[in-house]
Amino acid sequence: MGKRWFDLVVSTAALLLLWPLFALIALAIRLDSRGPVFFRQERVGRFGVPFRIHKFRTMVDDPALRGREITVGNDPRITRVGAVLRRTKLDELAQLIDVLQGTMSLVGPRPEVPRYVQQYPAPVRDKVLSVRPGITDLASIEYRRESELLARSADPERTYVQEVLPRKLHYAQQYVEHATLWTDLRLLARTLQVLLSR
């Protein structure tokens, strides 16, 4: 079974199975704060083509509070329900829609916003963007407490660009070079193990 067919089968089955959970999450978000259920943001996809990623909204829908594209520690923009969704990673489940649409894969390098992609070295950018971005990858597992790490920095933006991002790109290159269906299954299993342990 090819990677795309695997993505289609699993994402379709997961959406059918999880729709009651999606409905509960949507209800909780709407009761907790004003705004849409989904948060949409432009990310860079395969071959550099931009797309709008789906996430369950975890922050207040206030244009005055927008701006920073990384989340640091106890960000005041995060809602009560949003804090739970982020801690459990349930906000990321909405990306099953992106997998079904074909802009993402279940496993692959996490998609970045355009301004961070512009800082990728050219050979690295070409390699990382040669595959569909994923809901999970090794970097997602290793940096699952990224916001806590950045909260300890005097300059979170600089720490992300100079320390975290290069390491994520290293993991992404490794994935592209050695990706197989077996690799994807192992990363999915490891991701589920981490989520359940939380």
Automatic annotation (TrEMBL):
Signal peptide: none annotated. Residues 3-196 form the Bacterial sugar transferase domain. InterPro entries: Bact_transf (IPR003362). It comes from the Bacteria. One of its GO terms (molecular function) is transferase activity. The keyword Iron does not apply. The keyword Transferase applies. Keywords: Transferase. It holds the Pfam family Bac_transf. Belongs to the bacterial sugar transferase family. This is Sugar transferase. It comes from Caldimonas mangrovi. The lineage of its organism: Bacteria, Pseudomonadati, Pseudomonadota, Betaproteobacteria, Burkholderiales.
